[in-house]
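Predict structure. Chain length: 303.
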Amino acid sequence: MAPATARSSNGKPRRRSPLLRSAFPYILVAPAVLYLLAITLYPGIFAIYQSLYVVRFVKWTWAGLGNYERILQDAEFWAALWNTVVIGGLSLALQTLIALALAYFAYRDPFIRGWRIIFLMPMLFMPSAVAFLWKLAFNDGRVISDLLMTLGLTSGNVDWLASVWLARLTLIVADVWQWTPFLFIIFVAALQGQDQEIEEAARLDGASWPAIFWNISLPMMRPVIVVAVTLRGIDITTMFTNVYIMTQGSPGGATETMSFFIYRQGFRMFNFGYASAASVLMLVITILVAQTLVKRAFRSGRS
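Prediction complete.
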């Protein structure tokens, strides 16, 4: 058999130099790091650079901070930011409550625990397919309207895009249906990872499972909940597919989120520098909010 260790011409084992041994792990991960930098760092730097110009296809005119000054005075920008906060906030709150409730039962109830994989199925669908599904249910196929009329809750067809809050409701329902499993699986993992001795001690003292969950498990889960909600919140700020397919920002821009606003400015009005400035501002706001929430959560978890 050939020897497992490489040997030199004089028969002695060949050893790598200390420099090569220390650099070898970095060499292995270098392709992945370069790929991530190419698809994340470069577009970000280019967007910041482009935001300093008025860009009309191949014509670039220096604007400095002019795009940022204009966008801070743009009522449509603030309206899109407000829509993102309202739609994303309500959707995130519902997802968190539903995911916590499902995790509560899935962690304790043997029957539900055996079928928890079913709760993950909506997350496996493509976002565009989910958007078309709910567009069919709300608007094109009138499935929801027919169901409400059958139950006697409405007397006729409901035009979901004629009302501001009904249009927002369609986006919230679609987002909650698809992404609640993301929070659910994290919360279940957090419950299963807790120290069982604390739970057993509380049970021996006569505490019920709802009391244990509310007074012990939930406070211990607080850092995990905040991190999971922050990750989901960052993703919600980029909500585009549902808006593009289901509402197109109607009625009157009431469902236009920041992502759709940036898309409209860049790819419909061809104002690429202005769209880049909006992207940079949205990135800064998201980082500041996320950093504040996570920092406070971990400080609370240590205390």
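Summary: DSSP finds 14 helices and two strands in the chain.
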